[in-house]
Amino acid sequence: MRRGIATLLAAGGLAFVLANTARAEELTIFWAEWDPANYLQELVNDYTKETGVKVTVETTPWTDFQTKTFREFAAKGDAYDLVVGDSQWLGAGSTQGHYVDLTDFFKKHNLEKVFLPATVAGYAEYPIGSHKYWAIPLEGDANGWAYRKDWFEDPKEKAAFKAKYGYELGVPKDYKQLRDIAEFFYRPDQKRYGIAIYTDNSYDAIAMGVEQTIFSYGGDLGNYATYKVNGIVNSKQAIEGPRGLPRALQVHASRLGQSVLPRGQPGHH
């Protein structure tokens, strides 16, 4: 469609960039190189079957993703019809003329009720509390945990764990139990590494890896109404979260101490 309506999907959101309207026979979506982009390609293949419009998801490494996208924005280019962008782009996208106001569309389709309030606030609304929407949530970066049921139900493992830690082996109820389990199953000679968590040393992944602990301990990144950060991002709770991380989980933040995490796996530490 190139000079039609270019669509932006913000890492959770669908925003539109104005251009001359035209009927699309082929669309190109731009996103970072990772599995969700591959899944998106599978989804749009169904769209192609239904509409006859060919859709291609083009990707680039995360380290280059924002640079390429904003270079295209600045040039008002037409290399892509849709871009899957990050939620932190909402401000620049809406105030610098890259995104189209989707408030009417959002309300017409009752999207405020379709998504969780935190999802709408984080991936669609700008400024916060304004009820103006510039994107439609697409992918929320939610954390999911999985565990080896066969390990947890092995009578020998259960007995050994209880003898060492004094309580039954089971799904952890807090970070302390998570640390114990990670330590217990750290057996690299058996290709067991205790725990694997997603993070990375590029783009925003390392920050997102630690944010979950800040929030879990009652901390926050700042006051979203006043933009004050001093006394909040460095509050006792915000500091206690990362410091209170099990030693097993500290490796991605401090790179110190013995890791119980698998090394060398893409996106894991």
Task: Explain briefly what this protein structure is.
Helices cover 38% and strands 12% of the residues.
List the helices and strands and how they pair.
Blueprint: E1 6-10, E2 13-17, E3 26-32, H1 35-51, E4 54-60, H2 62-75, E5 82-85, H3 90-95, H4 103-108, H5 111-114, H6 117-123, H7 149-152, H8 155-165, H9 175-184, E6 186-187, E7 192-193, H10 205-216, H11 236-243, H12 251-254
Parallel strand pairs: 1-5, 3-4, 3-5
Antiparallel strand pairs: 1-2, 6-7
Question: Would you write up a description of this structure?
Answer:
The chain has helices at residues 35-51, 62-75, 90-95, 103-108, 111-114, 117-123, 149-152, 155-165, 175-184, 205-216, 236-243, 251-254, and strands spanning 6-10, 13-17, 26-32, 54-60, 82-85, 186-187, 192-193. With 269 residues, the chain is α/β, with parallel strands linked by helices. The chain has two domains: 6-123, Periplasmic binding protein-like II (D-Maltodextrin-Binding Protein, domain 2); 145-269, no CATH class. A five-stranded mixed β-sheet has the order 2-1-5-3-4. Strands 6-7 form a two-stranded antiparallel ribbon. Residues 1-7 and 250-269 have low confidence and may be disordered.
Judging from the principal axes of the Cα atoms, what is the shape?
globular
Beta-strand content: 5-15%
Give helix and strand order, one letter per element, not per position. Answer: EEEHEHEHHHHHHHEEHHH
The total of beta strands comes to: 7
Q: Indicate the structural class.
A: alpha/beta
Mean pLDDT: 81
From the alpha carbons, calculate the radius of gyration and give it in angstroms: 22 Å
Low-confidence stretches: 1-7, 250-269
User: How would you write the strand order of the largest sheet?
Assistant: 2-1-5-3-4
Question: Helical stretch count?
Answer: 12
- Helical percentage: 25-40%
Largest sheet: 5 strands, mixed
Give the terminus-to-terminus CA distance.
Answer: 41 Å
- Tell me the count of domains: 2
